[in-house]
Amino acid sequence: MRGARRTEQWFWRWRSNPLRRRDDVLDAWLVTAVWALIIVGGTLCGAVTGRAADGVFAQQRAERTAVRAVLLTGTPQAASNSYRSVAKVRWTARDGSTRTGKTLVKAGRAAGSRMTVWTDARGELTTEPPSRGEAAVESALLGASAALASSGLVVGIGGAARWRLNRRRIDSWGTEWALVGPQWGHKIVPHD
What we know:
The chain has helices spanning 22-63, 132-180; strands at residues 65-71, 84-92, 98-106, 114-119, 125-126. A five-stranded antiparallel sheet has the order 3-2-1-4-5. The chain is built from two helices and five strands, in the order H-E-E-E-E-E-H. Strand 4 (114-119) and strand 5 form a beta hairpin. The longest helix is centred in the last third of the chain and has 49 residues, at 132-180. By secondary structure, it is of the alpha+beta class. Helix 1 (22-63) runs antiparallel to helix 2 (132-180). Among the domains are: 21-63; 65-122, CATH 2.40.50. 47% of the residues lie in helices and 17% in strands. InterPro entries: MT1774/Rv1733c-like (IPR039708).
C-alpha cells in the first residue's frame, strides 16, 4: 500500500472536468450552503436563544419578591425530605393587604409555622426565580438545544435536497444510457 496513489481529488466538483455536470455543481453548492448554515445559523440561533432566556430569567429575578408567610394547613409526614405537598398559606402583600393561596410546601410542616414564599409584581404566589448560576446553566442548555435543533433541521433539508438531486442525476444517467447503450457494443446472439 505504500506506493498506492490516491485517486480521490479534493474539490473535484469545483474543477473543470468534461464529466462534470450541472447537478454536480449544484450538489457542491448545496453542501457548501448546508455547512455555512450549520456553522453560522446554528451559532446565531443558539446565541439568540441563550440571550433571550437569560433576559427572561433576569426579569423574573427583578419582578419576584420573597415574602414571609404563615402555613395555614399542615402537611403530612413523608419518607423523603424532598417530598412536597400543596398547602394553604397566608402572607401580606406589598400594599399591606392580607392574602391567602396554595403553594407547594415541604412535607412534615405544622400549621402555624413560618416560611418564605415568592410573589410576582401583582402580589400573587409564584415560583422562586432561578439564581444567576442556575439561569446561566439553563440559558446555555437552551441555547445549545436551539443550535442543535436548527442544525438538525438544516441537515435534514439539505439531505432531502441532495436525495432529490441524486434521483434526478440517476434518471438523467438512465435516459442517456438508453440512448448510448445499444450503440456501445455488439450483442452476442447464440447460434443453434
